[in-house]
Structure formats: C-alpha cells, structure tokens
C-alpha cells in the first residue's frame, strides 16, 4: 500500500517523537519531508487520519504550529507491509524491509510466515492440485550442477536433475538410474554405460549419450578446479558408439569414478539448451532444465516454484507443485522458535525435544557435518613448528567450544569415521590444558604475532569463537572471509589457518579425497608426496574396508602432525508431521519431494 510507505518516511523523519504524544509541525515541513506539494500533503494527512495512523490538529494563523500525533506503532505497520509483500510472492523485499528494525520484529514476521507454509490442496471441479510450500534457509545463486556451492542448491538440483547412477543413502552400493547397466574392463580404466530409452528433458527432447559426453566436458570447462575435479580431470577420452551408449576411458584406475557419477555434480544437462543460453543456464533469468521428477516453473523474489514433470521416466510424484521460499541470511530461525514451525509439516536440521512427542515424528539424518581447522604448513616461521601447531590444538578448548555453540551440536569431533577417540591433550583438565599450551608457546618462541584464519561467511560465527579461545591463550587471530566459490582457489593460500566443514554422508570417500588433495597444496613437498601416494593406494583399492583403514591411517598421521584439528560433529534430524507419508531421505537427510504424499 503506497500510503503506508508515505507514513514510514514521515515517521522515520521524526525519530524523537513518541507515539501518542503531539508534535508541533507545519504542513509545509511535512510536505518537504515527503517531497510533495502542500495540496498533496493535506490529502495524505486526511488519508492517514482515516486509517487511524495519525491525529492531526490544524492551527491557522501566522506563527501557529499544528499538532501531529503518531497513533500507530511503526513496527506494526511495517509488519503489515511485509505480510502484503510476502503474499505477493516478494519474500526478499519483505525481509529487507524488516531487518533494519531488529531481530524482534523479524521474529514476529517469521511467526506469521510459518502459518503460510505446509501442504495445501485446491479442488477445481474434479481436479485436485496438491502443493507443498517449503521453507529453506539461505539463498539460491545457481541451479546449474556445475556451479552449485550450497546445500540448499544441491537439494533443488536433486529434484530437477538426474545422474547416470545413484548411491544408496548408506553409501554401500551404486544402483542404475539414467543408465540401466554398465560394465568395465579388467583394469577398471574403461567404463561403458547403457542408457535407458525414452528419457526426456523438461523442454521435450529425448536424452542421448551425446548429452552425457557434453555434460562431463562442460563440467571440466566450467569448473576445472571445482569439487571432485580430480575425478573428471582424470577422464582421458569419451566416445558414443550410439545414442544409448557412452564409453569412458580413464587416465588411470579410479575406484571413486562410479561414486562420482552418482553425485549431483555429474547431473546430466541438455547440450542444445546449454549452448543456446550459455552462462545463464541454471539462473532464474535463464533456463533450468534437467530430466528430474520436477521442473522449474519459475522464480521470483526468492520463491522458486517446482511443478511435477509428467514425463518422468520413473513413478510420477504425488505432489503437483512445490514452492521453495528461501530465507536470506539473518532470517534463520533460532532453536527456541521451532515451536512456531508446526505448520511447515517437514523441517530439516531441527531438534524437537521441546515439542509434544505425539504431534511430530523425527528421522535421524543419514549424514553429519564435521567442522575442522587445517594448517598452512607452507608458511615459514611459527606454523612450521610442531610445537606451535600443538599449542593451537591445546588452545582450542573443545569442551569450552561446545558450551559456546548453540543448536544441534552433539559431540566433540575426533575423527571423520566412527571410532573411539585417541587420548591426547584435550583429555587434560582446564588448568593442565592452559599450562601445557603456555609451555608450548614458550618453547616455540611465540611473541604475539597475528595469525590469519580464512573461512566462508557462513562460518563467521564459528571463526569468532575460535578467535575467543585463542585470545584467552594469548594468541592473536585475524579473520578473513571469502566466498565459497573462491575457497578452493588461490585466495586461501595466504591464510595461516583454514576453517571449513565436510559432509559425512554416502559420498564420504569422495569428500575426504577432495579435502586431502586440497590440503596437499599447503603442505611441504615431502609431506604432500606421502599423502599423494596414500591417496593413490586408496583410488586403486577395490575393497571398501581396506580403503577405510587407509583413510584412517592418513587421518592419524595428520593429527599427529597437528595439521588437522577437529572441532565438532553435528548430528541433525528431520522432523515431519504424521500427515506426511513417504518420507525418504537423501544425503544429509533432505527429503525427496517425489516421495511425499499427504493423507
């Protein structure tokens, strides 16, 4: 409502005024504030009086000043305006309007907003349309499988695209998907995949083996140093004997190759459309087209609308439409606010111990996230000292860190695997730990030099807590934030410490290899060569149990060097209302929209 906007400007022009207390002004002064004519100002005042927002007592005559009384609290009208914006589908503008007013006002808006989510059915004649409105913290930058960086983006890509194969949620076995079968040679350097017939992209063209070849070539071109780049950079050649067959020849044996093809990074994209729209593929303003069970119907003001794809090659989803309402940073809910989310019906990354147990059910998600620090050993001076790296490890008091953290942090991390923690300095009591840290700092000759910790903006809070713990031990820290898409690039190489997280899901092995290859870039040459040899043994080993032991051996060596400092492990749960049926969890417990139905 435009008149409401005029009131906002007027009210903010007199911040010293108190609601209900008259303020002496002239019509000319008010007209100047709103940059309008005297006549228009009189009309606006009349309308504001009718709405009950102000009281106006005009006083005529030279030297007489009229009385303006603000009757309506600004926050209440701002909430009304934000609600109207949200109902028009402009959630982003609604949040931008309220955020300057502080967390309390945003919280009231979110409480109202929670009632707008959930499952809705509309019946027109004999046709029933089932819609799920789904809240998602964060924003969506891209839905191009080659350019995704965040969990929310990955979740939507999983609904819109498919890969040649799929991994079960435990990471134990790979199953057919777009490819119905595959075979490999004895050396496991050649892989041949046979595609299903009659698989269509959302724009109506049938998928062929040329699209698969194009997808991998495009990924190599757009993200030569991206996530899992060591896998697709290892493809020596691809050929397509016919429209339904593709053959990969690898430079060397890679037991992670099949697992990689099950990731959303390897989702198949249409060659013709990607070439047509170029860099706008995956953007709301361009085209987002895959073969998945849902297609992107549109995106506006932070709301992404998915509609069922009737020609999907597997069973049709029950839901006809999914609206994903993204919540920009700063709009995320606190744990104590979860009670207000009952209408969501499906919630990710929550704990619901405070809710009535009979009203909600919960599923423990198949994966966890693990936060850790790595050390840049290429830096000369203190970081080259094992004693200083050990001092850092001691200074980051894990039990104190867990106290400072809020949410679903359940345990201190000691490994990327499920195994008992080795007893080390962290088992000392507080006084002994501080004393040991002080001894190590004295031993290595620390004189108050400032260290740089680099991480992404999403982990700024964790970085701040690390800074507090180091400061209490007398170690100075400067925090440097870089975008996630830059984190694997050269920007991080100037840092002393790197703070990041890894998802421990069905793709754990891929993620760990990616991490260790990244760590090799900031190790000295002998240590990097040893780690590289260990990774080569893993990639050549067909036995999963043997690979796990090799991974744990790498982990032990890095921890002994104090090059890898574990912080904490986060277990999350997905909560859902009993009316939701068909709960089936993907990586990290995200619900597959295609499996949901409501009774």
UniProtKB/TrEMBL annotation:
Superkingdom of the organism of origin: Bacteria
Domain Transcriptional regulator SgrR N-terminal HTH: 7-116
InterPro entries membership: SBP_5, SBP_5_dom, SgrR_HTH_N
GO MF annotations, alphabetized: DNA binding; peptide transmembrane transporter activity
Pfam families cross-referenced by the UniProt entry: SBP_bac_5, SgrR_N
Keyword annotations from UniProtKB, A to Z: DNA-binding
Domain Solute-binding protein family: 174-487
Biological process terms in GO annotation: peptide transport
Protein name, entry field: ABC transporter substrate-binding protein
The organism of origin for this protein: Paenibacillus pinisoli
């Amino acid at each position: 409502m435009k008149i409401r906007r005029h009131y906002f400007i007027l009210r903010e022009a007199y911040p010293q005024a108190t609601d209900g207390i008259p303020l002496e002004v002239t019509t000319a002064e008010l007209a100047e504030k709103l940059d309008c004519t005297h006549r228009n100002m009189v009309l606006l005042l009349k309308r504001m009086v009718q709405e009950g927002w102000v009281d106006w007592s005009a006083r005529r005559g030279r030297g007489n000043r009229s009385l303006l009384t603000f009757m309506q609290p600004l926050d209440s009208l701002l909430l009304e305006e934000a609600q109207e914006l949200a109902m028009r589908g402009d959630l982003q503008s609604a949040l931008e309007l309220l955020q300057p007013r502080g967390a309390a006002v945003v919280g009231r808006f979110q409480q109202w907003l929670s009632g707008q989510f959930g499952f809705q059915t509309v019946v027109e004649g004999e046709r029933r349309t089932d819609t799920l409105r789904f809240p998602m913290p964060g924003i969506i930058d891209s839905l191009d499988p080659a350019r995704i960086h965040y969990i929310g983006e990955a979740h939507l890509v999983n609904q819109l695209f498919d890969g040649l194969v799929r991994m079960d949620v435990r990471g134990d076995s790979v199953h057919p998907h777009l490819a119905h079968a595959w075979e490999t040679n004895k050396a496991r350097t050649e892989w041949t995949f046979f595609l299903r017939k009659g698989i269509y992209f959302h724009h109506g063209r049938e998928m062929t083996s040329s699209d698969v070849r194009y997808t991998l070539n495009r990924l190599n071109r757009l993200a030569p140093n991206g996530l899992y780049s060591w896998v697709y950079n290892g493809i020596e050649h691809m050929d397509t004997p016919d429209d339904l067959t593709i053959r990969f020849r690898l430079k060397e044996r890679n037991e992670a190759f099949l697992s990689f093809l099950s990731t959303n990074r390897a989702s198949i994209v249409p060659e013709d459309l990607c070439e047509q729209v170029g860099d706008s593929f995956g953007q709301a303003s361009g085209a987002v087209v895959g073969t998945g069970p849902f297609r992107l119907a549109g995106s506006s003001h932070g709301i992404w609308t998915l509609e069922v794809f009737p020609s999907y090659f597997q069973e049709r989803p029950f839901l006809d439409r999914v609206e994903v309402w993204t919540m920009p940073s700063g709009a995320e809910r606190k744990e104590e606010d979860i009670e207000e989310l009952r209408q969501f019906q499906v919630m990710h990354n929550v704990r619901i111990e405070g809710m009535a147990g009979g009203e909600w059910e919960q599923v423990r998600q198949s994966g966890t996230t693990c936060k850790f620090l790595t050390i840049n050993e290429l830096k000369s001076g203190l970081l080259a000292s094992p004693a200083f790296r050990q001092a850092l490890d001691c200074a980051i008091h894990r039990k104190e860190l867990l106290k400072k953290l809020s949410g679903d942090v359940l345990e201190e991390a000691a490994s990327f695997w499920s195994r008992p923690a080795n007893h080390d300095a962290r088992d000392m009591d507080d006084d002994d730990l501080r004393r040991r840290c002080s001894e190590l700092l004295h031993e290595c000759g620390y004189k108050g030099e400032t260290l740089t910790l680099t991480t992404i903006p999403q982990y700024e809070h964790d970085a701040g807590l690390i800074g507090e713990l180091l400061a209490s031990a007398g170690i100075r820290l400067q925090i440097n934030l870089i975008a996630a898409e830059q984190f694997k690039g050269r920007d991080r190489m100037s840092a002393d410490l790197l703070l990041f997280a890894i998802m421990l899901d069905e793709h754990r092995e891929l993620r760990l290899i990616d991490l260790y290859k990244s760590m090799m870039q900031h190790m000295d040459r002998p240590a990097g060569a040893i780690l590289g040899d260990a990774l080569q043994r893993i990639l050549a080993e067909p036995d999963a149990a043997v690979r796990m032991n090799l991974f744990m051996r790498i982990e032990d060596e890095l921890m002994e060097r104090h090059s890898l400092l574990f912080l904490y492990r986060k277990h999350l749960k997905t909560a859902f209302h009993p009316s939701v049926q068909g709960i089936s969890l993907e990586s990290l417990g995200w619900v597959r929209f295609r499996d949901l139905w409501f009774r």
